[in-house]
Design goal:
The structure is a homodimer. With about 300 residues, chain A is of the alpha/beta class. Helix content of chain A is about 40%, strand content about 15%. In chain A, strand 5 (about 140-145), helix 6 (about 160-170) and strand 6 (about 175-180) form a beta-alpha-beta unit. In chain A, helix 1 packs parallel to helix 2 and helix 3 packs parallel to helix 5.
């Protein structure tokens, strides 16, 4: 008997997984990937980023990809945006979720979008206002995504108060959800718990919190468990662990969706995801992306037969 | 200011890391590896296994390796043994620790050593008696190592009671320490906590417990954190994540010592280990072992500069 999912996973391979790749993945392959992700039962898909093509060439075809993706009715299709203009494009594309990103690290924010955190929050407020002018039916959900929440490749450790302040800023500006992103993967289990608690204290109990983890230093799943321990039930993840920081070429990318789903189900939680179908996304990726970018313990080891029969 | 170590790490690359390899690592390279491990400040080294060469050809040179290893005075040199005869050889070699292994899975035990658990415990008791006849000075420490404590490739899940019973058997037979080994890497954080608690209840508070983790399914560090949460401060680990189950060729091996040490230090614990020197063991291994066997996030990503400066 299928259980109702009690952990929500947003698949980010088509966005975070692709954005730093040195090859352009053809539009058809991106669409095929999104289809396969939806077919595996994933209910939210980060399908691309509305940024200028000269900044991220990978998303030069984002309009075409989104036009295909939003046809899926079983999944919320989301897009990352760095500013109001990106959000306008996302709304026009008919997405169901907008992830508006601001770094907790002032230096990272300036490097990333050439604006201060406060200037970015102005943009976020403008997006909120624009969304509120739309009819409720079909209005995209708005997430405030806090990048570098657990460390920054420029500043190193980030003060808890800086994350708390930005979380409060997002909450006061009307975020429907707040994401805490370990952009470069420096988080540790203790830090995850601390920052989640700080954010929760600032925003109250009504706004959902999501964790976005990278496996740079091997602590991706350990950090997910830390998140579970402090009540997190919403995670970003990427099939085959796609993604990773361009400044650390060999580094692992996002926490691996397959490994995360397997772990969650093994500890008695339910994701609503068909793991065998999810594993099939590997074939699509392998046709276009070099093997060194494709990771995942479950892909290496296979799903152990002894655990299948025990399940 | 150096802090006194509060987590104890036993390096098992020279034993568990090598035993399933398809190449024979030359005796000199094994000795060089052990020297480098000791030089990095690791205070306990599992340096080989006293088994018949026809069973594990890798250890055909175990006497020569041990004769070299036991010259190290800064580290306890240990050996794994499957029976009384192996323990006799280990004692003759002058080791400081004997790891006597019995599987919690009856099927695995029969497949591994062709004896029942109870027959194995008889052997363990004989080793205890032999050790007690030695002078206290120089008497090796005796660990009862429980293999397949968190799952078995034959039986799948293992009953908690079976692990508890074996832990009690070891304790009653005079084990100085008891090891809980996730031999095939099926453990999950919740299971780690449950089994540690069951074992602790059976053996009382005086006998130290050690965790031996494999990273087959990517949960190695998550399981280590679970162990920390229930009071474990003694871990086995292998540099470059050497090791792994011969029945899952692509599977990851032991939890990676470098990654584990980095995580422990990042969460405020102290290992007494020099991470930079530990990382240098990679070069020794790379000369003899295929790259696909050498893993580790820290080796791929490098130690982040931003975290070094923040430390």
């Amino acid at each position: 008997m299928a259980r109702a999912p009690n952990v929500h996973i947003c698949e980010v391979a088509a966005r975070d997984g692709l954005q730093n790749l040195d090859v352009f993945v053809p539009t058809e392959a991106k669409c095929e990937l999104i289809d396969a992700i939806a077919a595996a039962g994933i209910s939210e898909i980060d399908a691309g980023s509305f940024v200028p093509p000269k900044v991220v060439p990978q998303f030069a075809d984002v309009d075409a990809v989104m036009a295909h993706a939003v046809q899926h009715k079983s999944a919320t299709i989301g897009a990352l945006v760095p500013n109001f203009k990106g959000a306008e494009r996302a709304i026009a594309a008919g997405v169901g979720a907008i992830y508006f990103v601001i770094s907790a690290s002032e230096s990272h924010n300036l490097a990333n979008v050439r604006r201060t955190i406060e200037e970015q929050l102005e943009g976020f407020r403008a997006v909120r206002t624009a969304l509120d002018a739309l009819p409720i039916a079909g209005r995209p959900r708005l997430m405030g995504a806090i990048a570098t929440a657990f460390g920054c490749s420029i500043e190193g450790q980030i003060k808890e108060a800086a994350v708390g302040r930005l979380a409060r800023g997002f909450a006061e500006a009307g975020a429907d959800e707040i994401g805490l992103a370990d952009t470069v993967g420096y988080g540790t289990p203790g830090l995850i718990k601390d920052i989640v608690r700080v954010a929760r204290d600032e925003i109250g109990s009504q706004i959902p919190l999501r964790l976005h983890l990278h496996d740079t230093l091997g602590m991706g799943l350990a950090n997910a468990v830390a998140g579970l321990d402090v009540g997190i039930r919403r995670f970003d993840a990427a099939v085959s662990g796609l993604g990773g920081c361009p400044f650390a070429p060999g580094a692992r990318g996002n926490v691996v969706t397959e490994d995360l789903v397997f772990m969650l189900e093994r500890v008695g939680l339910s994701t609503g995801i068909d793991l065998d179908r999810l594993m099939q996304t590997r074939e699509i990726l392998a046709r276009h992306i070099a093997p060194r970018h494709l990771t995942g313990h479950l892909h290496e080891a296979g799903i152990p037969k002894a655990l299948r029969s025990a399940a």
